[in-house]
Structures are given as structure tokens and as C-alpha cells.
Amino acid sequence: MHSLYAAGGEQPAGLSLCADQYLVLDGVVVDSVRLVVDVCPDVEDDETLFQTLRSWKTMLDHHNANTREGGEGARLIETDEFVDTLGGDALRVWTVLTRYIGSPPPEYSRPRDAGRRFRPLDRGWWQMSVQQESQPPEAWKHHLDGVVRRTTRRSRFFITDWGRTGLGPAGLIPSDVVFVARGGELPLILRSASTGASGIGVPNCVHNGPPLCSLVGPAYVSGVMDGEALADANDALMSVHIG
Prior knowledge:
The protein has 2 domains: 1-40 and 154-243, no CATH class; 42-152, no CATH class. The protein is built from 7 helices and 11 strands. It has helices spanning 46-68, 79-86, 94-101, 111-114, 119-130, 138-152, 228-231, and strands at 15-18, 22-39, 91-92, 108-109, 155-160, 165-169, 177-181, 188-192, 212-218, 220-221, 238-242. The strands form 2 sheets. Strands 2-7-8-9-11 form a 5-stranded mixed β-barrel. A two-stranded antiparallel sheet has the order 3-4. Helix 5 packs across helix 6.
């Protein structure tokens, strides 16, 4: 589902190779990971999945409570934003249409592109499936299996310093940074590996001391999946060494 996103905008990717071993990426640091919760296991039974997702929602509720009390939380996070994050703000549209047109290949889409009538699909499943308020329609079961289970398995839910929600690799930890590379589809989770001066200790480095980071992995991060981070970020653009 990566092609659904354009976090780095429509610009050409800014990348080069340094010292024949470090990838140098141009982009912008948009946030840092503040809170993380348990990794979602790769399981087939719904109840184990639901228990994990409920625990993630509990962390979000604690964040919101802390924010209301004047704590360090940047902003309140709505349940809809949380639920959108669990599915990567995506729909598997054919699951709604199969009753009319058979079983075509799955086509993933963003809710904004699929139309308003599909929005209940990617949000309503939360209360009916996870909260078990009633028997969910079959289409929502398809959405759970075809989208939510796919995006959450072996992933870790997190909240950033600025109150964004995200799904990232199992290895991410607090203080990791969210970096949007120019022209990239997904934000990247990076971990600082050096705070050295110009050259960062890389032999024959010709760059002006961009930080050395390790790549933790790609992520979904609310609010930065459609080029927002780079829209007005000329002054904030930087380069990082990945190694």
C-alpha cells in the first residue's frame, strides 16, 4: 500500500552516496517518538489482535488524560485519528463492492479518494469489532483482515512529541526521530548514531557534517503522509547520513 502515500512530496528524491558506504538523504526531521507500546503479534485469531489494539488505545487515553491535566502531551488525539492510523488511512474498496460485481482483485485506496460513503468502513469497525458493541457487518470483517491486520502485525504503535500517531517497526524506541525524505513515499524512523562535528568521522566525507543515523524502518505517521512536512520546509531541509 506504499504507493498510496507521498510523504516526501512530488519532488525528485534527494540522495547520494558518501564514502562508498553511507547513503545521504535530503529531507526534514518532523518529530520525535515519545511514547511506544507493545508490538502487535502476527496472529490469526481476532481476540489476540483486539487485546493488543485495546492496549494501544489505553496508552492513547493516558496521553490524552495527561494532556488535559497540563502534562507534556502536545495535543489531544481523537479516536478517529487513532483508528485511521491502525488501517494506515486506507481502504480495500473491493470488499464493499463484491456483493455487486463478483470478486475483482483488491484495490487499495485512501478514504478521501474513495468517497464519503466508504468512511464508515475504515472507522466504524473499531466499535463494532474491537469494542464488541454489536455483530459487525461482513464488509468490516474484510476490512479488518485485509487492511488493519496487514498494517498492524509486527508493528509498534507510537505517539510523537507533537501528538501525532503512528505505526512503525518493532524496533523503534522513544527518542527516535521521524524523518521525511524528499520524494519518499513513507516517513522513516531514524536513530542518531553520532553527534560529531563536520565530517562525522567518515573518511573522505565532503558533506557539511550531516548527522550519522541508523535506519530503524519506514512508518505511517498521521498528518505527514501527503507532502505536508516538505510543503514549506525549505529552511528546515537537511541531509543525514544513513549507515
